[in-house]
DNA sequence: TTGTAGGCGTTATCAA
DNA sequence: TTGATAACGCCTACAA
């Protein structure tokens, strides 16, 4: 059966298109059935391992398989999804991706999902509720079996969004706080800032720092981190008031600057010099490096005069001089967990919404003293 | 019409599932039609701006729109795709993603595609032909309208893969060399290494360097870069033999190490000290930083004794001391171009395969002298 | 051991 | 101005 043989399966328009464009025609069950000389339902049974159940003859099975392979048959997932079976498709909604390891998560997650037989839609919410809602609608229109997303903060879970999430058989959240569980039928993978913050502040206390300051971009996205930091400060007898412990940097516009430059410019605009501190905790490694360069430029030594700690533990920060301390949230484990939980829930309907807590870890390096 | 009203549209199994799981039922054209009191084809016409063509009454239109919005109707893209219209879905196949800006591309591309009304499947080829072929099959099964992928080298375009690519109405390639065009009906966005390499080597020549050495991971992925470097060396009268100009690092296993550590370990295993050089060109910025740290450790000064240049121009390398020179391939422009070309070809069938060349740029910074 | 028929949610083409 | 009806490709009963 060669290309010409497909003519009868196609209307004129499709056929002309195929001829002209040199496209390979897509094979259907019916084409295979005709070629072998059986019905499409027989072919379907063989190709879906339902052959024995249906008592298809050995010979027929072999021929079907042979023809299917020869013609390079690929089941149409649209049709399959339409009849009600799962689409084997997952939607992944990421906020924006200026920071490591956020921009690694899509690749890692899609790779893990692929191993489990799923394809992944990648979508961006841009930290914008409207965009988020819109993405959910599109994923629902495509009948994904589940969604994974990363809301950062309850703030992004408006009633409309909560409602929209109920369209999906399974949803898994990645977040920095654990309050979402309430009314949402979703599994939560929660990266706990508390542990890392506690370890870091304990280190500050031990090494005699008196004024730790947190540098963070303003907005709800970082609330959990701020809270964890303040709690740790209190436990160790530091002043945890906003005035003493917090330094806000304007949020970075997506696709605008890179975050290193963004933080550096802010520091250089004379704002950081008005503050007193001998330890800095920056909510991203890029910010920590910007801070170190800013301090160096002003003759302030790291770590002797000021300790600096970042967040996210990018591989590259080990290469700086002094090497940069950081808080790691071990994203490979998080990805693994997310995918495992998702697939688990896809296979086993009716599971109660659960929660996995992933403690962060303070990684001490030279910049922290 | 409240939840209970949907009962009649669902078989027992689906209904029980809905009830139990608190899922929002998905609305169909038929449900809207029944609610309004017309046929689904009328509803379809109204909802697809075909109302005037079909002469639907104003009143009917209003009611249809109102009910559709109230019930939060979302067209089923599976069904829509099945009847032959485009799926508004693109497949993106990335190699592996250990390096910047590769891990940024998926986000950037999917965001741009989203703005044009497309959703993006993210898939990984892992630099493995089998995986690649498999990904193509899955994307085809899902009837994507087009694919974008990043093959690095002709080597990855085996006959089987070329054949598989013919299943897709439109394909766009991103690559470092321009030989692909031959038999392939694909548009190519080609990042030309020549220009950046030329500028860099010219700079080496001007500043009196005598032995430039290229540090690159072994494998076909970097062939175009090697060629560009060697050509530039020849043009400037340098020895461009493999022995003189090339230093190979084993390819990094995906999900194994980070590339900074990988390069550093290799350098430290005494292999780099056997070579003579006064200028290093590393095919990734991570490698350049590893080299700088290795040299510093051995008392060799950068850039006085050895000039160091990276590739990719990661934002963070500006923060190093000395700041790291690099070759930039301006990936935002590449992404924009890829998406523009793809959409152009989707809207206008029968375009001849074209090619856009994107010259790279040498970014001089302290490490290059 | 296999074929037939109905349905999934759309769109498109008739006919009324 | 609208309603039937036939595809699209697949799956699943049920019939033979």
Produce a short descriptive summary.
Chain A is an alpha/beta fold and 369 residues long.
**For the terminal residues of chain A, how far apart are their CA atoms?**
74 Å
Instruction: List the strand order in the largest sheet of chain A.
Output: 2-1-3-4-5-11
Overall average residue pLDDT of chain A: 88
Please report the number of helical segments of chain A: 14
CATH architecture descriptor text of the largest domain in chain A:
3-Layer(aba) Sandwich
Overall tally of structural domains of chain A: 3
Gross geometry of chain A: elongated
Strand coverage percent of chain A = 15-25%
Biggest interface reads:
A-B, 74 and 74 residues
What's the CATH topology label of the largest domain in chain A? Answer: Rossmann fold
- Which ranges of chain A are low-confidence, i.e. pLDDT below 50, for 5 or more consecutive residues? none
Structural class of chain A: alpha/beta
Alpha-carbon Rg of chain A, integer: 27 Å
Portion in helices of chain A: 40-55%
Strand/helix succession of chain A: HHHHHEHEHEHEEHEHHEHEHEEHEE
CATH superfamily of the largest domain in chain A: Response regulator
Number of beta strands of chain A: 12
């Amino acid at each position: 059966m060669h290309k010409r043989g497909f003519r009868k399966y196609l209307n004129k328009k499709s056929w002309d298109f195929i001829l002209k464009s040199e496209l390979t025609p897509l094979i259907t069950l019916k084409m295979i059935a005709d070629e072998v000389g059986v019905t499409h339902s027989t072919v379907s049974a063989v190709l879906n391992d339902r052959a024995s159940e249906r008592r298809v003859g050995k010979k027929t099975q072999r021929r079907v398989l042979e023809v299917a392979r020869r013609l390079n048959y690929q089941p149409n997932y649209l049709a399959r999804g339409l009849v009600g079976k799962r689409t084997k498709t997952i939607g992944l909604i990421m906020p924006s991706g200026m920071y490591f390891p956020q921009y690694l998560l899509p690749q890692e997650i899609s790779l893990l999902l692929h191993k489990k037989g799923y394809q992944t839609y990648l979508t961006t919410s841009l930290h914008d509720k409207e965009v988020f809602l819109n993405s959910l609608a599109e994923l629902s229109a495509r009948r994904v079996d589940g969604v994974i997303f990363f809301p950062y903060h309850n703030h992004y879970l408006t009633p409309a969004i909560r409602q929209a999430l109920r369209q999906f058989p399974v949803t898994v959240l990645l977040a920095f706080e654990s309050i979402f569980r309430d009314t949402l039928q979703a599994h939560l993978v929660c990266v706990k800032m508390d542990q890392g913050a506690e370890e870091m502040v304990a280190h500050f206390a031990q090494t005699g720092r008196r004024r730790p300051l947190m540098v963070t971009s303003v907005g709800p996205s970082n609330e959990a981190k701020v809270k964890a930091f303040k709690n740790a400060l209190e436990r160790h007898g530091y002043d945890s008031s906003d005035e003493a412990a917090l330094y806000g940097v304007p949020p970075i516009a997506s696709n605008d600057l890179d975050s290193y430059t963004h933080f550096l410019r802010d520091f250089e605009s004379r704002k950081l010099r008005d503050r007193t501190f001998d330890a800095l905790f920056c909510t991203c490694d890029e910010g920590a490096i910007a801070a170190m360069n800013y301090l160096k430029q002003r003759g302030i030594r790291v770590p002797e005069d000021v300790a600096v700690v970042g967040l996210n533990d990018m591989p590259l920060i080990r290469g700086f001089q002094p090497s940069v301390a950081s808080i790691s949230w071990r994203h490979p484990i998080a990805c693994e967990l997310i995918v495992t939980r998702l697939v688990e829930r896809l296979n086993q309907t009716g599971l109660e919404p659960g929660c996995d807590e992933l403690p962060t870890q303070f990684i001490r390096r030279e910049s922290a003293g």
